[in-house]
């Protein structure tokens, strides 16, 4: 006794349309990568030059220089709501390690922002750069969440980095794409 055949033949992989156009998706992720890179790079350059304003046509924005970064960190950890953070160990790390050594940490922050920004803009080791940027932003999220304001303070700064650390966005309009085409052995993370 044979089983009745299905009314439709089984779909083959080549017959199934993708959920999204891969080229369009790649371009969209490249735009996101470049945009996040510009934000990192601009804030890093602000820490080098000391400039805190950016004016591009009708757009006017604020950047955070080295003194501003130190002041924000000190305020959020020590002074917010007259008591500062309640995250175990955070106040100790900030007050005993970071703030007393700000002469070193201000340049580390600057190097991370400029480096991550530049790598994301050109699309080189973009997933690795995104992971470094993600660690940086998650530390800031920890500082902000401990300020007893919102449960998910500024997710627009770290959620895109989760995505960019997971997908090879540097392969579209980026150096990662050139490297992978010319050196197929690099077809793995962080490229």
Automatic annotation (TrEMBL):
Residues that span the membrane, as ranges: 104-124, 131-152, 158-180
GO terms under cellular component: plasma membrane
Domain of life: Bacteria
Membrane topology type: Multi-pass membrane protein
Predominant subcellular localization, coarse grouping: membrane
Subcellular location: Cell membrane
Record keywords, A-Z: Cell membrane, Membrane, Transmembrane, Transmembrane helix
Chain segments annotated as coiled-coil in the UniProt record: none
Family per similarity comment: Belongs to the DoxX family.
Protein name, per record: TQO small subunit DoxD domain-containing protein
Species this chain originates from: uncultured Thermomicrobiales bacterium
